[in-house]
Amino acid sequence: VDHLFNAVQEVFEFYPPTALDTRGEFAKEYSSLLSLLFYKSMETEDWDRALFACTKDPSRKVRLDHLKRLVIDMVDSGALSKLLMMCSSHGEEREQHDFVRGM
Q1: Tell me: the pLDDT tens digits for 26-36?
Q2: Torsion sign (Cα): 31, 5, 19, 93
Q3: Do the Cβ atoms of 78 and 45 come closer than 8 Å?
């Protein structure tokens, strides 16, 4: 998971945001890389990285699907307190948060 996370961050730093958004030339590949990071993070219950991958995906549909899966899996695994903590930490800056802006 660490290697995937590092790869995503390098791509995010290297390419301009317009190349990675929904109409960008690398959007499909970037989305695939984020999805891989999301699913591997879910397997290891690395909720913070799963949320990162979820919120950075250029596809609104994928973001929503992954967010739903993240919430369900966190509740099913007994990580409700972590889920609530994540929600409250993002709640204060909700308008600036990438996920909310993309909705």
Answers
A1: 788 888 999 99
A2: positive
A3: no
